[in-house]
């Protein structure tokens, strides 16, 4: 017995087939019309721009020099102007040491017999100055009354009675060193020489007032205590 398909059944399946055919044509047409990326010389897709590179074409943001570099040079010039050229001379900035709590350092020579180096340093605050004065590099156990051994940290005074700061000195191998401070100005001075402790201490007594400060005008020598 043969099964017959009705008119409605045939029309239904015919309509579905037509819709599927039309849909396939539309998808193919849209795919053909879609924009394509420009071709490159090697056939590779261009890589996206690297993060952080400005679109203007520059190599990147310009990094400003650390502010302490500029400040160090400025403060060094100020220190050179502040020291007395009759006591120290040939002063030049030492930027390598102007780090941490030091904001400026100048190295000078002494025209009068005594130290081979006089280093003047300006500090950012009192704590940095105190650390420099009492640092382990300068601390030795002997105590004495001049730099032939080690003079414990104590105040120093001018011959007019002012007490500008503190002094510390002692031997280091064949050399002798003297540290003294100008506390209000946050300035420390290091003098090193090979002339012997007593000779260095004598030099310091006549040359400690190497800053041109109006508060010490008229003073011309220094002592301890």
Describe, in plain words, how this protein is organized in 3D.
- This protein has 225 residues and is an alpha+beta fold.
- It has a domain of 152 residues: 3-Layer(aba) Sandwich (Protein Transport Mog1p, Chain A), CATH 3.40.1000.
- 28% of the residues lie in helices and 24% in strands.
- The protein has 4 helices and 8 strands.
- It has an 8-stranded antiparallel sheet, with helices on both faces.
- A hairpin with an 8-residue loop joins strand 1 and strand 2.
- The longest helix has 27 residues.
- It is elongated and about 115 Å long.
- It starts with 6 loop residues before the first helix and ends with a strand.
Main pleated sheet: 8 strands, antiparallel
Unreliable sequence segments: 1-8, 40-69
What would the principal axes of the Cα set say about the shape? elongated
Enumerate the strands of the largest sheet in spatial order, edge to edge or round the barrel: 1-2-3-7-6-5-4-8
- Integer average pLDDT: 73
Specify the CATH architecture of the domain at 67-213 and 220-224: 3-Layer(aba) Sandwich
Strand segment tally: 8
Q: What order do the helices and strands follow? A: HHEEEHEEEEHE
- Measured distance between first and last alpha carbons: 136 Å
- Share in β-strands: 15-25%
Which structural class do the helices and strands define? alpha+beta
Determine Rg (CA atoms, Å). 41 Å
Helix content bin: 25-40%
């Amino acid at each position: 017995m043969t099964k017959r398909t009705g008119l409605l059944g045939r029309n239904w399946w015919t309509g579905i087939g037509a819709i599927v055919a039309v849909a396939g044509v539309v998808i193919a047409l849209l795919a053909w019309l879609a924009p394509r990326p420009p071709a490159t010389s090697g056939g590779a897709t261009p890589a996206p721009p690297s993060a952080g590179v400005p679109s203007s074409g520059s190599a990147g943001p310009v990094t400003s020099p650390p502010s302490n570099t500029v400040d160090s040079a400025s403060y060094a010039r100020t220190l050179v102007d502040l020291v007395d050229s009759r006591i120290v001379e040939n002063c030049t900035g030492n930027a390598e040491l102007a780090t941490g709590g030091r904001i400026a350092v100048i190295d000078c020579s002494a025209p009068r017999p005594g130290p081979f180096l006089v280093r003047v340093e300006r500090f950012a605050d009192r704590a940095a100055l105190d650390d420099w004065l009492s640092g382990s590099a300068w601390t030795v156990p002997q105590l004495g009354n001049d730099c032939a051994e080690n003079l414990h940290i104590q105040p120093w005074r001018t011959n007019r009675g002012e007490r500008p700061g503190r002094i510390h000195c002692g031997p280091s191998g064949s050399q002798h060193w003297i540290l003294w401070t100008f506390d209000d100005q946050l300035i420390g001075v290091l003098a090193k020489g090979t002339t012997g402790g007593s000779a260095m201490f004598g030099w310091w007594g006549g040359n400690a007032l190497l800053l041109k400060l109006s508060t010490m005008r008229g003073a011309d020598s220094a002592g301890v205590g």
